[in-house]
Amino acid sequence: MAALFKFKRLLLHKHINGCRYIIRTLHHTSPTATNPRNLHLLLNGADCGARLDAYTKARSLQNGKQLHAYMLYSGLLNSTTHHHLRSKLAAMYVICGATDHARRIFDEIPKITISTFLWNTMIRGYAQNGRSEDAVFMFDEMLSSGRQRPDNFSFPFVLKACADLSLLKLGMEIHCQAVVGGFGGDAYVQNSLIAMYMSCGEIEMARVVFEKMPERTVVSWNTMIAGSFKNGFSEEALGLFDQMRDAGVEADCATVVCLLPVCAHLKDLARGRRVHDLVDEMGFGSHLAVRNSLVDMYAKCGSLVDARRVFDEACEKDVVSWTAMIGGYVLNGFVHEALILSHLMMQLSVIRPNSVTLAGLLSACAGSSSLKHGKCIHGSAIRHGLQSDVVVETAVIDMYMKCGCVDLGYRVFAKASRRTAPWNAILSGYNRNGLAREAIMHFKLMQMEEVYPDAATMTSLLPSYANLADLQQAMNIHGYLIRSGFHERVDISTALIDVYSKSGSLDYAINLFERLPNKDIVSWSAIISGCGMHGHGRAAILLFNEMMQSGVEPNQITFTSMLYACSHAGLVDAGLHFFNSMVGNHHMKPRLDHYACIVDLLGRAGRLGEAHELIKTMPFEPNHAVWGALLGACVIHKDAALGEVAAKHLFELEPENTGNYVLLANLYASMERWEDVEAVRNMMSKRGLKKTPGYSSIEVRNTVQDVLPRFLDVGAFS
What we know:
Largest sheet: 2 strands, antiparallel
Strand content: under 5%
Strand order of the largest sheet: 1-2
Shape: elongated
Number of strands: 2
CATH topology of the domain at 603-718: Serine Threonine Protein Phosphatase 5, Tetratricopeptide repeat
Number of helices: 40
């Protein structure tokens, strides 16, 4: 074994004499040296060529290296009668993934003897092994050599590289070369062109190529279906499948695997069931990829019974199968079932979870604030060696932050890779836990460490600026967004509208809104909410009407913003109209936040009895926001009896929230019921509660200071 290691070291540095010595040693000490698993001694050129073909087909890199050693020793690679062996050797290395070895051998071959097949094999090897740039350079080198011209196999390989690199312009140039070379009508080339254009987002060019095809194979249809879905044209993808069947083209497994994610995305369960019927009819059910896609489709369409049935009936399961089923439970809120299934996977199955499996489970723990289970999943990630995977470490940070364990989340972040996703998780986590300043500080650290933010970074960060409500800081981040180009994204501009609204500058928010090229429902909801926040209820109503005229349908968040605006502007009748319209015209079921707004609306108007009756008729248990709105209204209108009812419920729901006790005490104080005020204070004292004092924030020399009013000392900052 030591001799073999020494041989590999000598071979790597091309010490031929040393290699020959080691081979002689092995030959004299091993009676099985002629075994195909050893060094293939006593083989001629034809034998070596045949064995190279076999090893290439079997992807047997180790045997190929041993044969390479023999050919070096025997001198076959230097023979003019066996020059084809170098080409076969280079092909073997590149197809087995050893692209650097392949390139060294390729460079030693006289360019005049290199066949088109070898050029194609090298381009293909680079493209399939994730070295797309090298594939493009190899194609260019092929053209520059002037010896061989690309054929109908050359173009698909280099087009795949262009697709991987999103090099649309280069892809279009290669398209022109294919047409000039007479391969523009080749089905293999055309399918590759469709795939390239779809990957680059140029769906119209893909359609042009597809429409001009004289004969469309199932591969052509599959490429169009998958590409349309990838570019957001889900309905068109389904339409293409219908056209394919009308054209008499028979679907294959790839068609089904392309189609089921479309049904899942659209939550079109009926269509998904029809595709399942097709699977049974065509006999595709034994294919693992098809069954995994069925599980995913049923789970995302909310039919967990069907998903579990397909999962349980599968004779073979891989990590994708388990991940799809676990993810389905998580997606539909069945966290307990997801955790049980993950336990079965880890304890009863030989299949190890991957990063996606663990990220899904961590997301479930985060959503249910199940810290204990989250720590167990974190431990499992460490045991399986996946704790450094960026997907897993990001999910771990997110889980701890959503469970309120900021310190643990930061400890994981401190050891995490310095990539964008973990930074996004920590920024979002700080904001979620009310630590806006820490989020902004870490964003600045992120820039100092030269970690490049993405759109998700901005959407994680901007709510912190909104919570800080500092206009100067808002303008600073706005300037950064303009310099970095993020301001052109609608979602970023929408978040900035919210920042300006909460920073007290509704004019800036409206200006931003009016400049949006495409206003979606989120944008409309944000500006309506901003108007409501500033007490401009009638302006919010005008914006709502304008939105409806533009063809944008409101959602539940829009109605929450409208009800909030009407409540703060005292527009009771208008608020009730929008509530009834939401239920009657738009067929939406009111949520707790809608009821809270209506209770607040009626309460502010002094209609406390109606507000209480509405609470009694709610289809679900009122939460703290609903009872809090009623208690606040009772304080305004000095209704102690109803206020006590609301306070009783609040003390049960939020026993440690001092604000509720203070509200009740203020109600008693407004009615000069001092004994009751003292009783509330005693209740707080017995429960160990203490009101957090209010404070002011001031900025001095770019540093924000929190100051309690009684300790304010202007001289301290001079």
